[in-house]
Amino acid sequence: MSTDRVIRWGIVGPGRIADSVAPDFAYVEGAELVAVASRVQERAQAFADKHGVARAYGGYGGILGDDEVDALYIATPHPQHEAVALAALAAGKAVLVEKAFTATVAGAERVIAAARRERVFAMEAMWTRFQPAVVKIRELVADGAIGEVRQVQADLGVDRPYDPKDRLFDPAQGGGAMLDLGVYVVSIAQHFLGNPTSVAVSGSLAPTGVDVEAGLLLGYDDGRAAALLVSLRNPTPGRARLHGTKGWIEIPPRFHHPKAFTLHRFGQEPETFDLPPLGVGYSHELIEVNDCLRAGETESSVMPLDDTLAVQRVLNEASEKLGVFHHEDARVAV
């Protein structure tokens, strides 16, 4: 693909997240949002009218067969990600899949296997890793600014009134705190500590059977650990800390899309870095996909598929220890 070619994007699933992502295309050089698809034509058309998108499809077949779409941002409920991603990859379209990547480990494995078999780009839309503040944190950690990272703390909680009809409380739609919020805290721990060797969890369930709160302790063979909290029943600051042998880094609320952070080196004054994102912040993951496509890459080195799979394994193990067993939606028509 030419290095100066415009990457033409489509969105599948014009919900709340897609509504926030769409305006950020304006900050991405060489990207154009040209199509949107929903199971309901009227919903797709309303989204297209709001965001100035040229083509709106009812059902997913139209956008999958659109030769003028290079990449798809998949923002359907979690259990539908696998079916849509597999169909998109088979059609030769790059995919940016909203987190959590899938509802199950098996689903993630199938999508990853298909992407590698077809040699088509796929990435989880973990925008946190591409925020300018997190990019700088990664550089500082790599340079040894806080020594060896030994512990990670992170929390993310919201006060969501219980409503059995709400997607977050609906098992069929992959509801629960783990897949929606846990993915952030687990991903930042995995990013800076690697893959854990043990997962301990405590939490509670809603009357519908989904998890509404959880505390996770990720363990590592050498004694490193991550203490993580998520909740749908009470708000938390949304803060993260990376603790190293020579200092620590404080990421203020909300850590998953920070505008700044503070570096604490032992024996030195704290140093604050202000690094706001472009637009809302989704722009940076879109830029990554565009850059990878132009370079002919099929995976991102910042958000590789192996990391996505490792995080998915933690999420599902923790959910199942709480008695929550997620399933992919086999009824999706693509």
UniProtKB/TrEMBL annotation:
Keywords: Oxidoreductase. Residues 135-250 form the GFO/IDH/MocA-like oxidoreductase domain. SUPFAM superfamilies: Glyceraldehyde-3-phosphate dehydrogenase-like, C-terminal domain, NAD(P)-binding Rossmann-fold domains. Residues 7-122 form the Gfo/Idh/MocA-like oxidoreductase N-terminal domain. Pfam families: GFO_IDH_MocA (PF01408), GFO_IDH_MocA_C3 (PF22725). Belongs to the Gfo/Idh/MocA family. This is Gfo/Idh/MocA family oxidoreductase. It comes from Microlunatus spumicola.
